Amino acid sequence: MLNRLFVRNIGFRVTTLTAASSHSNKTFQPTYSYSTSSSPQQQSTTTTNYASHQQPSSQQSANKQQQALLNERFYDEEKFKDISKEPFAREITDVLLGELDNNDIEIKPDGIIYLPEIKYRRILNQAFGPGGWALKPFGGPVVISGSLIRPYALFCLGRYVSESFGEQPYVEGGHLSFATANEAAKSNALVRCCKDLGIGSSLWDPTFIRNWKAANAAEKFYVNVKSGEKRKFWSLKNGNSPINYPWKESSSSSYNDGQQQQQTQPIQQPQFDSSVSFDEVIPSISQPKQPQQSFQSSSSSVDHSEELDIDSPVPPQLKKYAGKTWREVIQDPKGIDYIKWVANTLTGKVKLQTQAIINFLNEQQNQQQ
Fold first, then answer.
1. Is the omega angle on the peptide bond into residue 316 within 30 degrees of 0, that is, cis?
2. Using one digit for the tens of pLDDT, what is the confidence trace for 75-89?
3. Given this model, what pLDDT does residue 97 score?
4. Which end of the chain is less enclosed by CB atoms within 10 A, N or C?
5. What's the rounded Cα separation, in Å, for the pair 189 and 182?
């Protein structure tokens, strides 16, 4: 009986919650021209050549990337006109420097706290009004060493405020499309520029970080139900940022017990109780000092898990995408909604497969934040 599915992605090893770029050694190498002429004939030279996937030499590629990033428009003195001429009005600065709502702050598993990008946009809209601020690009996107990079400058009420390079991990042919990676780089640049306006400055204050973590987050031990590995992750106390499969929460005492047992006994096969739902999978190290746990069973079993290759064909139940792979489906703008519909409608193995794909997409989205 199949109890668990997890996605194996060529290019993204989701089983370990880390991205790998072993899928392809190809690097997306667009070419750029920064001609400012407005004639139709010359405008054609400013078009980014996304269609030609030619692979120049490494030296030519490095020179082209450097030229694209260090273009003269990004450092043009004209954009700095009236820079720091006067402060913004008091009612604007009160919004920009306002205290953050603790409920708006999120925490990553490694303990880094952050404010979601949409919150920065809302603060800017509240301070300057929609249309009162803009993030202007100064050059096209460039892919360097697995990262999509694009320069931006933030203007508020027609005045230059700050500039930064937006950055987003990107591998051609991976799960993330070029357009989505470009949008993520824009959001990254916005967050960096907003630092100069003082938005969310407390997120970099060590004292605030310690106090916020003590009041709103907790660091707990988690066990990988596939490998038995144990690690500590941060999550919100209100449960709104759970650590997803294959990690399962484990008490610190059981962690110490497991460490001692590893030194004295060989690792045993995981135990599985037929009365436990498939969401409760047993760690690979037995824990005799926790007799109350519902994992215990007098009969031995195995971890009923299976790898789902993201480049494998979808099951025939997904009639709308028959003959296509999972990767092709999730790259379709309507494909993800269709997968969610199948997960909520159908049953059996296809339900587990679609749920595994959804979990995979959620993990990728979390890593981009």
1. no
2. 666 777 778 788 999
3. 95
4. N
5. 11
